[in-house]
Structures are given as C-alpha cells and as structure tokens.
Write a structure and sequence with these properties.
It contains eight helices and 35 strands. α7 packs parallel to α8. It is globular, with a radius of gyration of 24 Å. The two termini are 41 Å apart.
C-alpha cells in the first residue's frame, strides 16, 4: 500500500481514505463503554489527517476514536494502515483485530471469513506519552496525533504474497549480480492449499516452484540462487530500477529493486566503488496545515528544492518517511538515511535501560527493515539520534541495535547521530561517525568550526577509528523568515546564511569529513509543552520557511553545494 505504483493487479484493493466518524475520549472510558460497537457522539474528520488541525484539538493529547462504514463482498480481508500516531487498536464489527505501537510504521491485520455486506471498522488512536514512549515527551517536533497515512482493505484469496526481500551481492567489478528472493506467503483459506510460485524480473525468470501451506499458515520461501549478467547499476543521476513480478495461482505482488554497493574505505564513503561526498539536508515530513499527514502533492516540490540546492542525499529525521517519498528518491537517484524516532535528550539513562523501550525500538527497526529493505536509495539505517552515547546505557542499546541491523539490514551503513563528539564511547557501533554540532549557535562561534573539526579528528584517531569517515549530520542556525539585518545578528537571515556558507567550506576542505546534512530543510512546528520553547512555536533553522519560501541560507547552501558538485 501507499506506493508510487500499483503493487497488485489480481488482488482486489479498496481504499478507505476519506470521511470517517470521529469522537474524542478525554476520560479514557471508550473501551470500557464498548465504543468499538458504536461511537456515542459522531463528528466528521478526514483520513489521513492529524486531529491537531482542528482548532479545539490543537493541544489534545490522549485517545480518539475513528469509525468507517464500508461495503465488502466478504471473504478474508487484510486491513492495511500506513501509520497511526502513536498507538492503535482496531476492531471490525466490534470484534478486536489487534494492537500496534509506533507512529511512523505500516501495519496490517487480517480478518477471516467476513460476510458479504456492510461493515464497520473502528480504530482507537492514542498519542499520549509515558515513561515507555518512543519518542519521549521532550522532543523537538509537534505532538501530533491521528491516522496520518492511508488506510485500505485487501481481499485475500488462496495463497497470497505478503512481502518480498531481495538479498544480493555484486561481483568485484560490479558487472554481475548473485542473489535470491525471500517471499512471505500466507494461506488465507481454512484448508491446506497448493500453488505455483513464480518470480521473474524484466530480464530473467528467477524461480518457479510448487508450494503447499496449511490452513492460515505463514511461511517464508527462499528462491534458488540466481545470476544476472551485465547489470545496470542504480546510482546518483542514473537510477536504474528493475521490475519484479511475483505470482501465485490466486495472487500477485509487484515491486521495484535496484542494484548498488555502499561501503566505507579509508575515511571515505564509497558508492559503487567510487568516493562520494554526501551533500545533504535533514528533512521532517511535516507541513503546518497538515502536520505529519504530509500531502503527497508536495513530495516533488520538496525534492525539486532540495535538488536545486545541489543536494544528493536526504536524512529522514527522525522517523521512517512515507513509502511514496522513498519511491520517488529511488526513481530520481537521491540517497536516503532512514531512522527510527529514538530522539535525543528526552531519553534519560534510566529510559535507555527500560526493557519496554528497548523492545519497542527493536520492533521499529524490524518494521523499518521489513518494509523498506528493497529501496536502493536507502544507504544508511539510523539507530537513534542524540541519546546519551557517553554512558553505559547508550553503549548497550547501540551495541544491540547495531548487531541486529548489520545482520539483517542488507547492504547498508549502520549509523547514529551523536551530540557528544568528544565524550562519545559508542563509535565502534557505527560505520560512519555522524556528529550533530552547532558551533555558532548553541556554543562557540562561526570561527570555531575549524578548531572543532581538528579537535574531533584528534579524538577519533586517539580512539583508534582513524579510518572511519566523519559526517556532520546536523549543523545550522535559526533565522526568522524575512528578518534582515546588515550587522548579521542572531536570528537574521544574513547570520544564518554566513554560518551555513562558512561551515560547508570548512567541511569540504577537510579530508576527514566526507559529507554534511544541514539542519534543516524547512522550518517546522514544535511544542512548548514538550519542553521546546522556540520563537513562533517553530524550529526556525530551515533553509526555507514552513511554506517552502527560500531564505538567504538556501541560496548560500545552493552556491556551496553546487560548487562542490561541479568539482
């Protein structure tokens, strides 16, 4: 669901986006009073959306109930949710289907033997925070809530294809591919079934076999090893993609894949065995009138502006972005860093040792890997951002997540963003050292960037990581759009532009720095109640304002990044 192309032709899919009934539950009595059977009070809301765009609910935190009536021919139905912020419980006709935690992950529930006729889908969404939340309450974005991505219902028949994963290696000369597919199959019937599984690409027939599954059984089927000669690589500005067709007797799944190699070598990031300088920007998937229910029509607008700046890479700060956006990056040869929302100072040392938080983080990594594995644009998995990587709890959680992602994440670099440059004890658990640093804003001055980089390189070498690449993963300064000052004082567009320009020159001229990600692409809403007391209620460090109007810093970054590109 939620792709730039149709994933299914055979499988019947009904989109449930549109107007839903809606009821807030501020006293948390809805489940006890069985609102899943019928909402006591019904207003209208649109899905996908956030409820915070309704004036009386701007600061609402808690449970909200959604209800949608729809017609189905019945059978075995799979309900697919793009994302719900942050917890969701789902019922069909008053019967409980399941629970999901995590505000930026896709999830599904299957209901069997559904009768033909009208049905009622009920969803309770909860955006409250407690000691086990990811993220924690103190977070530098707005506390939105709602069903923020598309909802659909699929009719399953016979043995169905639920997911696929391409595992491959390129030859040393990058001309040939050796690989296999792992296919997740599900028997939707109440009896044992057999089917013929077929996998092919535009180039070759990959695999065919007969499969038998017991009633309601899920099974992973691995194809034989296949070889593809003279492969067309996926690369920046040359994003070659291969179509994949997977079929059974009763179902199908279409996907796209790309072949590329990402690695590190002697302080450099290498794409397809060529050194690459990452010219990047951090981007939140947020727009003030729509919150995290980001309008798909703005995907191209954002990317066009980012490409105009001369960027070749984007960091999806600080959560998995919608699949359509990553599809668009696949199509346009733009590199992507995808991470989960374990963010910063909100996580105390005690929180990082909390088993509920650790396990929820594992689940988020697993979901990110499952749904985004085949995207060639994703070159980095991000474990967390600005947590306490200078204490043992940060060390332990980093070690666990790093091991999982290295073993299961495919050909990607595994990283995290550190805000403890000279005290961090976790650099062994990152393939690239990524530093969030704000010289000239939260300390130091524009002129101290050179000494900061030199001091860090000395610290890195002392730790024995002298061959690890370094990326400045966040840096910047805030500026109020339209505020100009000839003396370049703080908060002026002139000061922000000067800092961005100078910092980019410092990074580019230092052989130890292999890239940078400006903080950030656009101004975005924050929340004082979450501990972020920022001017206008926005993080104002964007190169463009919240409505994508460029500041002077946009043009400064554009000049520098395009100079580097032309070199």
């Amino acid at each position: 669901m939620g792709r730039m192309f149709d994933e299914h032709i055979v499988r019947k899919i009904q989109n449930l986006d549109g107007w839903w009934d809606f009821c807030i539950d501020p006293d948390d009595t809805g489940e006890e009073e069985k609102w899943y059977e019928n909402l006591p009070k019904k207003e209208k809301t649109y899905v996908p959306s956030v409820w915070n765009t309704q004036k009386e609910l701007i600061k609402y935190e808690g449970k909200v109930w959604y209800e949608k009536s729809f017609y189905s021919d019945g059978g075995n139905l799979r309900f697919c949710f793009g994302a719900c912020l942050t917890e969701a419980k789902v019922w069909l006709d008053g019967v409980y289907l399941g629970y999901h935690y995590g505000g930026f992950s896709q999830f599904e529930f299957i209901a069997s033997d559904v009768y033909s006729g009208y049905h009622k889908l009920t969803v309770c969404v909860d955006n409250h925070f407690d000691e086990h939340s990811i993220p924690q309450r103190k977070v530098d974005w707005y506390h939105y809530g709602g069903i923020t991505r598309s909802v659909s219902v699929e009719t399953l028949n016979g043995i169905c294809v639920l997911a696929n994963k391409l595992i491959y290696e390129l030859s040393s000369d990058l001309k040939d591919v050796t690989g296999k597919f792992d296919i997740e199959l599900y028997n939707s019937e109440n009896t044992s079934c057999k089917t013929k599984l077929n996998i092919k690409t535009d180039e070759i027939d990959v695999f065919e076999c007969e499969v038998e599954l017991n009633a309601k059984e899920t099974k992973i089927i691995s194809s034989d090893i296949f070889n593809l000669k003279n492969v067309k690589l996926w690369d920046i500005n040359l994003p070659n993609l291969y179509n994949v067709y997977i079929t059974t007797d009763t179902d199908d799944l279409f996907d796209r894949v790309g072949f590329r190699k990402i690695s590190v070598e002697n302080k450099k990031v290498m794409l397809n065995n060529k050194e690459i300088e990452l010219r990047g920007v951090n981007r939140h998937e947020e727009y003030p009138e729509f919150g995290f229910a980001f309008p798909k029509t703005l995907i191209k607008r954002d990317v066009d502006l980012i490409l105009e700046m001369g960027c070749n890479s984007i960091r999806g700060s600080h959560y998995p972005n919608m699949r359509e956006f990553v599809d668009y990056l696949d199509e346009n040869g733009i590199l992507f860093w995808s991470e989960i929302p374990i963010w910063g100072v909100g996580f105390s040392e005690e929180a990082l040792m909390d088993e509920v938080i650790i396990n929820r983080g594992f689940d988020m990594h697993k979901e990110m890997v499952k749904y985004y594995y085949n995207h060639p644009s994703i070159i980095m998995w991000g474990m967390h951002n600005e947590i306490l990587t200078n204490v043992k709890a940060g060390y332990d959680i980093s070690k666990k997540y790093y091991k999982y992602l290295k073993e299961n994440g495919g050909n990607r670099l595994v990283v995290y963003a550190s805000s403890h440059a000279l005290t961090d004890i976790c650099f062994e658990f990152t393939d690239v050292i990524c530093l969030n640093e704000y010289q000239g804003w939260y300390g130091g001055s524009i002129d101290t960037w050179e000494s900061f980089v030199d001091n860090f390189v000395e610290y890195r070498n002392k730790l024995g990581f002298e061959n690890k690449p370094v990326i400045i993963s966040e840096f910047g300064a805030a500026a109020i759009y339209g505020w100009h000052d000839s003396d370049k004082i703080w908060w002026s567009e002139e000061y922000q532009a000067e800092l961005i320009s100078h910092a980019l020159s410092v990074f580019h001229s230092n052989e130890n720095v292999t890239g940078s990600f400006i903080w950030q692409f656009s101004d975005m809403r924050t929340c004082k109640e979450a501990g972020m007391n920022r001017a206008r209620g926005f993080n104002n460090k964007g190169m463009v304002n919240e409505h994508r109007r460029p500041k002077l810093a946009f043009h400064a970054a554009k000049q520098k990044y395009n100079e580097f590109k032309n070199e």
